[in-house]
Specification:
alpha+beta; Nucleotidyltransferase, domain 5; four-stranded mixed β-sheet; 3 helices; 4 strands; 35% helix
Length: 118
């Protein structure tokens, strides 16, 4: 039986999440992407709280699309600013089962360039 792309991604994500968890000291950066948009949250899994979030759907980022590398970098920059405002410097990166390639890799690289450590 052939598995859908979505199902395979969800299985990869579940496999990753078995060993990856965000704490108060090192929250988790969870990335999600679609064909047109990209979004991310900084999550403390111990308390089950989202500490910061950014998405290409926001009004401030409407000029750039989330469907390309430049849009992913813009969202990453916004998330890094919000993380600094919340005194977050160290995180763990959760690629959400997506390949670490293209927009996801560009997003991670931009977060590192903007001062988040992972």
């Amino acid at each position: 039986m052939a598995r859908s792309t979505r199902e395979l991604r969800q299985r990869r994500h579940a496999r990753i999440r078995k060993s990856l968890s965000g704490t108060a000291e090192r929250p988790r950066v969870a990335v999600s992407r679609t064909n047109k948009h990209i979004s991310a949250q900084i999550i403390d899994d111990e308390q089950g709280r989202t500490l910061a979030a950014a998405s290409s759907v926001e009004a401030t980022l409407k000029s750039s699309t989330g469907g390309n590398v430049e849009g992913a970098k813009a969202v990453a920059t916004l998330l890094a600013q919000r993380a600094k405002a919340a005194n977050i410097t160290k995180v763990v990166f959760d690629r959400g089962g997506f390949d670490y390639h293209g927009r996801v890799a560009a997003f991670a690289d931009q977060l590192r360039a903007d001062g988040l450590e992972f």
